Amino acid sequence: MPQHLPDTLDSSLARGIAKAMIDGFNRHYRLFRAESARAKHRFETADWHGQQRGQRERIEFYDVRVRECVQRLEKEFKAESLPMEVWHEAKLHYIGLLVNHFQPELAETFFNSVTTKILHRTYFQNDFIFVRPAISTEYIQNDEPASRPTFHVYYPHSLAGLRPTVERIVADCNLQRPFAHLDADIDRITDVLHQTLHELKIRANFQIQALASLFYRNKGAYLVGKIINGYWEMPFALPFLHDESGKLVIDAVLLGEDDMNMLFSFSRAYFMAEMEIPSAYVQFLRSLMPRTHRGEIYNALGLAKQGKAIFYRDFLTHLRNSTDKFRIAPGIKGMVMLVFDLPSFPYVFKLIKDYYPPQKDTTREIIKSKYRLVRQHDRVGRMADTMEYSQVAFPRDRFEDELIEEIRKFAPSQLEISDRDGDGNEEVIIDHLYIERRMIPLNIYLQEAFDAGLDNPKAREQMEHSVIEYGNAIKDLVAANIFPGDMLWKNFGVTRHGKVVFYDYDEIEYLTDCNFRKVPKPRNEEEEMSGEIWYKVAPLDVFPETFGPFLLGNPAVRETFMRHHADLLDVAFWQQHKERIQQGHVYDVFPYDQERRFQPDPSYHNK
């Protein structure tokens, strides 16, 4: 139904509220953008710890600015006691302030974040918050002469023009650090592009588009763009790294949608990029990765609140257009988290249980802190990003009764069933939950291979890939200063790209906080024959040699694991990594396969 609009917008109070809220958002995005811009200098000066710190701190900016804005509204306008007509008019004034804004979608989400801190939930509707976007993000551009475009366009005209074009593209990055062998790198890039394009008939619109800002994450910077020829388009990215001498190198050429998906994966830390018009960046990136959810692209750019807002709108649309029911998620049930899903929707919903078995010495706040740790940490492509929501309402008739009983049994404090909105429809309201991309649990993926029989070549390949990827995942986590805690197969999942990712965070610890030990030798026969642990174990003690019995019961799995990852059972492996991290070393973790990297070739240096 259309909203009732006031005859006039003449409330100075509503106008003042709208102005205070847009001021709050503009301050937020100004600081967000400045912190993102500083990533370039940190990359150029190899300030890796500063880069990690900047990524962590930027995540907290949004909530701090929302709190500041709420406090201002309460202090200056007595916000909690205002009549609803004022809030309705304030929203309309706010829309007027967004007409020529460069980040209107982010500003709308900021408005929602502030008002939902002040208003009662029954007012979370079209009149008072942005349930749907009010301002289009299409065709936003800054026409000021000094403004930077979203992307640069280059015209090679022919394959012969590729090399000078690549040279211009790299020069336009304006990186203030010398390259180790730039001519050789450009030759390699040109060779790869020639191999990719050599069979194409060059059309009139042959061009290369490259986003104006590099994308910075940890120890890398990435130039992202696409090659266009006729109706054919090819996404590409160039990773810039530092070599051992501290000079810049271009490490690889990434090509195609799959490479882009790996680079912008939901299991990696957020990028830092200097963006005046974020929606234009998202639109460009979506053209490279059309199967990637728009909300996930916003997340990858560090705009997680916008990602959550888009995700939730799409989720509500999916609910309206589907009929299947939420159910207990397939797989082994967790001791700490209760997991449910909607079969037709590619995400899972996780809530913290109220009760845990004796071996789980934890609390709700400790578990929440583990999830915060993961959100703020470098996920190195091995930990799933998680969206956190509070007071989420679902239609009651979409829940299987078995799931309701499961929640009542294990998490009654998180469950409310009522018609809170007074619209005659009963709702299931979950107080606090996490939402993650659905993956195939690794134990189920392995079991599929066993069920097919390991004499089947595809089944054996699936098993071996799973085990090798599992070990690679743990080693990547170790390089990022993360000890997963519970390393059972069921706590890892397989993505659509076949990558193994960790997703159970309730026992996660910093590697540097753990004490890696060898199992002491028994002092007598009684200790040797004891079925119980007879030596003292502190809370953060870890005994790598004991992993085997829990993980490697299947002989084929054990043989593959020992062939590729036997070092994970050796205390020295863990201790050496811990010591290097304590000494300040930051490991390289690549969002692409090692074989994609340019290998040293002396012949290039003589070209």
UniProtKB/TrEMBL annotation:
Mind listing the GO biological process terms from this record? glucose metabolic process; glyoxylate cycle; tricarboxylic acid cycle
Q: Where is the active site?
A: 385
Tell me which InterPro entries the record gives.
Answer: AceK_kinase, AceK_regulatory, Isocitrate_DH_AceK
**Which residue range or ranges hold the Isocitrate dehydrogenase kinase/phosphatase (AceK) regulatory domain?**
18-322
Q: What is its EC number?
A: 2.7.11.5, 3.1.3.-
Q: Which residues form the Isocitrate dehydrogenase kinase/phosphatase (AceK) kinase domain?
A: 324-594
**Per its UniProt record, what Pfam families does this chain match?**
AceK_kinase, AceK_regulatory
Q: Which residues bind ATP per the record?
A: 329-335, 350
Q: Which reaction does it catalyse?
A: L-seryl-[isocitrate dehydrogenase] + ATP = O-phospho-L-seryl-[isocitrate dehydrogenase] + ADP + H(+)
One GO MF term, please? ATP binding
A GO cellular component term found in this entry reads: cytoplasm
Keyword terms, alphabetized: ATP-binding, Cytoplasm, Glyoxylate bypass, Hydrolase, Kinase, Nucleotide-binding, Protein phosphatase, Serine/threonine-protein kinase, Transferase, Tricarboxylic acid cycle
Compartments where located: Cytoplasm
HAMAP family with a match to the protein in the record: AceK
Family affiliation: Belongs to the AceK family.
User: What NCBIfam families does its record include?
Assistant: PRK02946.1
Role noted for this protein: Bifunctional enzyme which can phosphorylate or dephosphorylate isocitrate dehydrogenase (IDH) on a specific serine residue. This is a regulatory mechanism which enables bacteria to bypass the Krebs cycle via the glyoxylate shunt in response to the source of carbon. When bacteria are grown on glucose, IDH is fully active and unphosphorylated, but when grown on acetate or ethanol, the activity of IDH declines drastically concomitant with its phosphorylation.
Give the protein's recorded name: Isocitrate dehydrogenase kinase/phosphatase
Instruction: Give the organism, scientific name.
Output: Lampropedia hyalina DSM 16112
